[in-house]
Specification:
The complex is a heterodimer of chains A (392) and B (503). Chain A is built from 14 helices and six strands. Helix content of chain A is 61%, strand content 8%. Chain A is an alpha+beta fold and 392 residues long. In chain B, 48% of the residues lie in helices and 15% in strands. Chain B has 14 helices and 15 strands. In chain B, helix 1 runs antiparallel to helix 13, helix 11 packs antiparallel against helix 12 and helix 12 runs antiparallel to helix 13. The chains are: A alpha+beta (392), B alpha+beta (503).
Chain lengths: 392, 503
């Protein structure tokens, strides 16, 4: 049998072999501080400068310019660029009927004199007089009703999800998952407020995407916590340890998933909006990028520590120290996924690693390398054997 | 067992291929949104000067009505003195004009005895079929006219019938030359929705008596489908109650006890009034079907237009996001996807071929479903939707990562691949299922309760999630399990890039 139990000597190797022993719970304060900072910055920025709401929310200026062979959408864009008017949130369309074609340009509201200057430039570019261009104020398309209904739907959604997670897992997990999700959306909104990016309906969709992604990610992590909870039920393992073990076990998955989710978004940002010049994609992709990074971060540094905190408060205090360093590593590796260990061998192999009867060896968190394999071997005194072949 | 796995694997691939082939053959592709494909724009102008607030109210009402008709994500705004309605997924200007023809004003007219509509020169000698005054307890609208209807002379033919043109008819204008001929001056004959006709008195109120947007279909176990609508406080309630008491007491102005709700000179419903006085809300019941109740509710809501608007012109609009946006999104998405797949192949070696196959099946399924769904519901795929699908790639890849990492864990613990795969799938399925159900809840609630682009987002979120679950269970599971039990796997020394115990 060629079972590979040696601990990789390189950090990356350990990550990909699921041999990490990071004390996530011990570092929870760092994670929470960052989250709190992000929330404070967002709230401060929202209070100070609010959001830069785009055309669809606040309305703006609109021009109807007669189109001709020499004046179309591209020429109108050039005029806006020349006048230093942002075209990211602008809507420039060709509207044609049997009788006439017009180019409709809608931008965020401009100061009066600037709007007049732009009108004059449009007239010049289109080769018409200023009077032939109709200039008017255009209202928002996103009515209060849409926001109202969306907010109501979101509130109901959060309640239903809270109930679902409470039933499927437990209410503490629901609370933690929703807290993490709120954090992610706040961070994304914060980026929009701090940098004053224009908020369009697409941005709102991006925020909703982030919300869904964040919950999804947290639930995958919590599912492992829940599974380990059952596995260690008979060993009275402190909840912090369970959380730490689970986090280390799902770390590879989290890294791989975030990498493969973020890669397409990066491609949208760099290739789509950068190289190919589709400006409409830029801020949308940016919001998604920030939200996804935050989503992965919050699952690890907000949701899980919060869960551990809530859970330890509800349990009698444990007198044992948390598993750290190689012991944690051994638990992470050994605990693997060997299904029914607790039921089959309640005082068996892996459980021994943390059993209170055995004096804990003081192993420094930094210790790794040569001693680790021995440790792991000792703790895994009975590596599970492959089952005998059965006929099916 | 193996046979079932093969059936599932081949079945899902075949189904996806067939639906994809069908969609491609029939050129059935998802409708693209205004930002990607453009659409048709209709400009509406009020018939009389309107304030900005009134225009805003009309804007919201038009959007609500369009959404109700199933035209998704219209872009409605007030521009200057006009209302501009941009419709995605509509290529035909005529279709667009009829879609936005939601501008009529609802009128309330008492229903008169048919004698009142007797032309003045012909003495009512003919047999009057039925006695209209008898149907007091029956509130069934639209069924009585057959009994009340008289063989009417020319006037009925001049009544605008099926063709509801974009020009709106001022109250009574169409019948202006006619009333002098009637016994009862001011009476008109208007057609009902089901082809009958009613003799009606003059307009006594408009849809303004109802609270804006408060009408909704209700289902009462004893009375079936009905419509409940709130009265607008003050003037609205007074107008309604004065009318109601006239009808309830069978005053000469309303001898039949029935009150007709008229839109664009067509009687929508003519319920009898069973109470003289209403405080807050009115409930209209009858032998409605669900869709009739919904239509009536919509008519009542529509009647709350503060001013009439009429269509001025229709134009086709070009995509607002620039024609290159979709192309850029697709190219960038494909490049991103290719990078992800390359990365996964490097990481998981040849087992990643399952991922490549799975993602292909998933993409085909999403495309087919999006085509069908947008055909049924008129939901357009906007740029936000396209990027949402690109994000969904990440979530879909996650189910493979969770699965394969779990297999690796099991292998590390000394299991054989054949043994590890089914166990791993069981645990993975639990995880994926839990996480995806949350997405489905989000999709369901946002779709049913919100409007506009949020609704479109919910639709595509639900769609990609369902495809993820289907592919995971019907493709990935059999593919990996079959590979795991194959002879080649049993003798391999490395799986997923790691050494394994060989049985």
């Amino acid at each position: 049998m060629t079972l590979d139990t040696s601990v990789s000597t390189s950090g990356l190797g350990r990550v990909f072999r699921g041999q990490t022993a990071i004390d996530f719970y011990g570092k929870r304060k760092v994670g929470l501080v960052l989250a709190v900072v992000a929330v404070i910055v967002t709230v401060g920025s929202l209070a100070a400068q609010g959001l830069n709401l785009g055309l669809d929310f606040e309305g703006g200026d609109a021009w109807d310019i007669p189109a001709s062979e020499t004046f179309g959408v591209d020429e109108a864009t050039d005029v806006l660029d020349a006048n230093d008017v942002s075209t990211t949130g602008a809507r420039i369309q060709l509207r044609s009927s049997e009788t006439s074609d017009v180019v409709t340009v809608q931008v965020e509201e401009l100061p009066r004199d600037k709007a007049e200057a732009v009108t004059a430039d449009f007239a010049e570019a289109a080769g018409v007089t200023v009077d032939e261009i109709s200039f008017s104020f255009t209202s928002s398309t996103w009515g209060a009703e849409i926001t109202e209904k969306a907010v109501r739907a979101l509130v109901i959604f959060l309640l239903v999800v809270a109930v679902f997670i409470s039933l499927r897992f437990e209410w503490r997990m629901a609370l933690a998952a929703i807290a993490a999700m709120v954090n992610d959306v706040v961070v994304a909104v914060g980026v929009y407020s701090v940098f004053q990016f224009e908020v369009t309906p697409a941005t709102v969709i991006a925020f909703l995407t982030i919300l869904g992604y964040s919950l999804y990610d947290t639930i995958v992590v919590f599912d492992r916590v829940k599974e380990n909870e059952g596995r260690y039920a008979s060993t009275k393992m402190p909840y912090e340890d369970i959380v730490n073990i689970s986090m280390n076990q799902v770390m590879v998955r989290s890294l791989l998933t975030s990498f493969s989710s973020i890669l397409p978004v990066l491609s949208l940002l760099i290739l789509g909006s950068g190289v190919m010049g589709a400006v409409a994609l830029r801020e949308f992709a940016l919001a998604l990028l920030v939200g996804m990074i935050s989503g992965v971060y919050s699952s690890i540094f907000i949701a899980t520590p919060l869960l551990a905190y809530l859970k330890t408060r509800s349990l009698p205090p444990s007198r044992r120290k948390r598993l750290l360093g190689d012991e944690l590593r051994a638990a992470v590796m050994g605990a693997g996924v060997t299904g029914r260990i607790p039921e089959d061998t309640p005082h068996g192999d892996v459980a021994d690693a943390s059993d209170g009867d055995r004096p804990l060896e003081p192993v420094g968190a930094g210790a790794s390398g040569p001693t680790a394999p021995a440790q792991a071997d000792r703790l895994l005194s009975h590596p599970p054997r492959p089952r005998k072949k059965k006929r099916r | 067992m193996a046979r079932r796995l093969w059936t599932s694997l081949i079945g899902v691939v075949l189904i996806v291929l067939i639906t994809l082939g069908y969609n491609i053959a029939t050129d059935n592709t998802p409708i693209l949104g205004l930002d990607l494909q453009g659409g048709v724009s209709v400009i509406l102008a009020p018939t009389e000067p309107a304030t900005e607030d009134e225009l805003t109210v009309i804007r919201d009402q038009i959007r609500a009505e369009l959404e109700r008709q199933g035209i998704a994500e219209p872009d409605v705004r007030v521009q200057g003195e006009t209302i501009v309605v941009d419709l995605p997924g509509v290529r035909d200007q005529q279709e667009a004009l009829s879609a936005v023809d939601v501008s009529g004003v609802v009128e309330l007219r008492p229903v008169l005895n048919p004698e009142s509509c007797q032309p003045i020169d012909t003495v009512p000698t003919g047999p009057v079929i039925g006695t209209p005054s008898d149907d007091t307890t029956d509130t069934t609208p639209g069924t009585e006219p057959q009994g009340v209807r008289r063989p009417v002379a020319p006037p009925a033919d001049t009544v605008p019938g099926d063709t509801v043109s974009t020009e709106t008819i001022p109250p009574g204008a169409v019948n202006e030359p006619v009333p002098t001929q009637f016994v009862d001056p001011g009476a008109v004959i208007l057609p009902t929705r089901d082809g009958g006709a009613e003799c009606l008195g003059p307009v006594q109120g408009t849809g303004e008596v109802f609270e804006r947007g408060s009408a909704q279909p209700t289902l009462d176990p004893s009375q079936g489908w009905g419509v409940s609508v709130d009265l607008r406080g003050g003037e609205g309630r007074d107008t309604w109650n004065s009318l109601a008491s006239q009808c309830f007491n069978r005053a000469p102005t309303c001898p039949t006890q029935r009150l007709a709700i008229v839109l664009d000179s067509v009687v929508q419903s003519a319920p009898s009034v069973n109470e003289p006085n209403f405080t807050d809300s009115v409930s209209i019941t009858g032998n409605f079907t669900q869709s009739e109740a919904e239509d009536l509710a919509s008519v009542l809501n529509r009647g709350a237009f503060p001013v009439e608007v009429e269509a001025q012109e229709a134009r086709t609009v070009s995509p607002s996001a620039g024609s290159d946006s979709l192309q850029a999104a697709i190219v960038a998405g494909l490049v991103g996807l290719a990078l992800v797949l390359v990365f996964l192949i490097v990481y998981y070696r040849w087992l990643a071929l399952v991922i490549v196959g799975g993602i292909t099946v998933w993409a085909g399924m999403v495309f087919s479903m999006a085509s069908f769904v947008s055909g049924w519901t008129n939901y357009a795929l906007s740029l936000a939707g396209v990027t949402g699908i690109i994000v969904a790639i990440g979530v879909t890849v996650d189910s493979y990562v969770v699965f394969f990492e779990r297999i690796k864990d099991e292998l590390r613990n000394g299991r054989t691949i054949k043994n590890a795969a089914p166990r791993s799938f069981k645990m993975t399925w639990r995880t994926i299922w839990s996480a995806d159900v949350v997405s489905l809840i989000a999709a369901g609630i946002l779709f049913s309760l919100s409007v506009g682009s949020v609704r479109g987002f919910a639709l595509y979120l639900g769609l990609t999630t369902i495809c993820d679950l289907l592919v995971c269970y019907f493709f990935t599971r059999p593919a990996v399990l079959l590979l795991a039990r194959s002879k080649r796997m049993a003798t391999r020394e490395t799986v997923l890039g790691m050494k394994v115990a060989t049985a």
